[in-house]
Amino acid sequence: MVDVAALVTALGGFAQKQQLVVHGAKDLDLTVAVRSGEVIRARQGWYTTLPANDRAVQAVRVGGRLTGLALIHYLDGWVVDPPPLHVSMPTNAARMRTPTNRFRRLRSRRGVVLHWDAADVAERGLAWCVALRDAVRVVVLHESFEQAVAVLDWALHTRLMDAADLDSLVQALPVRLRAIVDWVDPDCESLPESVSRTRFRLAGHHVTSQVPLETDERIDLVVDGEAGIEVDSKKHHADSFYRDRAKDLTITLAEYHGLRPSAHSVFSDWGRVQAAVTVALRRRGVPPPTNIQEIGTGKRRRIPQLRAHHDARWAELLNFRRLRE
């Protein structure tokens, strides 16, 4: 008998019946494998070794593949809130099923977002997910601006995408959305840092990322050349407490007003974070920003036109220092 589970695993965790038959599997082999629980039928003619509640299985069960923010979340990408199930569907899709039951027709789309994709999207990716660039494009088109920027930051920081991939993606976007490239920073190291940077810039502040210190450490964000912001990530550990306190002293010795908001503060108490930075800047004589940006939501939202400054961050920092001196 053919080891169906091993064969499905070798084929990437998902396999269609015809693939298994080509490799020697018989109907009896498939029946035995399913009854033993070694594999499950995600959908008629589809077999998997993943658990039934896995989101990839659910997307296949619906009749498509994971895409958009659901795929980014599945890959442990930078996602603010757990998303609904985003499923890429071929234009000729039929017999859609619910994510939890392959026998029940999909009548209500609560918790499921369908994206009807062209044939070129279907040609890329894996059996259970679209290619990353196609998922990111869905994010830029449909999610909030700060979430879209965070996903691009993550994709570049983790090197799942490179500059050429970003350029290709941007060229495939509607013209009104292409300016998002000026808001992306591949040196960004965490989701709360990305969200903070975007929000400060939307509020009209000049933000420089990953500013070097004499200790070879870097400040996450410097706002208007005066406030040194260290954003503690969700993965902040107790064993870094003393190292972080030492870095705070270094930031102050470098003549910045140091602030260390937690990830919780960024996501749940941003008003106080923004107010604290405003007070710190005012006490240092920095006038309030006047070019505050506003963005809409959904497909008609406007992408702000502020320019990024990451390539010349050190030169700009020196200029700030000279102006203050």
How would you summarize the topology of this molecule?
Layout (H helix, E strand, L loop, with lengths): L3 H7 L3 E3 H6 L4 H10 L3 E4 L2 E3 L6 H8 L2 E2 L1 H7 L10 E6 L6 E2 L2 E5 L6 E6 L1 H4 L9 H11 L2 H13 L5 H9 L19 H12 L4 E6 L5 E6 L3 E3 L11 H13 L3 E3 L3 H6 L1 H14 L29 H12 L1
Quick rundown:
The chain is an alpha+beta fold and 325 residues long.
Structure report:
Helix 7 (132-142) packs antiparallel against helix 8. The chain has a four-stranded mixed β-sheet, sandwiched between helices. A three-stranded antiparallel β-sheet has the order 1-3-2. The chain has three domains: 1-50; 52-180, no CATH class; 185-324, no CATH class. It is elongated, with a radius of gyration of 24 Å. 41% of the residues lie in helices and 15% in strands. It is α+β, with helices and mostly antiparallel strands and 325 residues long. A hairpin with a 2-residue loop joins strand 6 (97-98) and strand 7 (101-105). The longest helix is centred in the C-terminal third of the chain and has 14 residues, at 270-283.
Q: What overall geometry do the principal axes of the alpha carbons give?
A: elongated
Structural class: alpha+beta
Radius of gyration: 24 Å
What level of helicity do the residues show? Answer: 40-55%
Instruction: Give the terminus-to-terminus CA distance.
Output: 80 Å
Average pLDDT value? 88
Low-confidence stretches: 308-325
Number of structural domains: 3
Beta-strand percent range: 15-25%
> What count of helical segments does DSSP give?
14
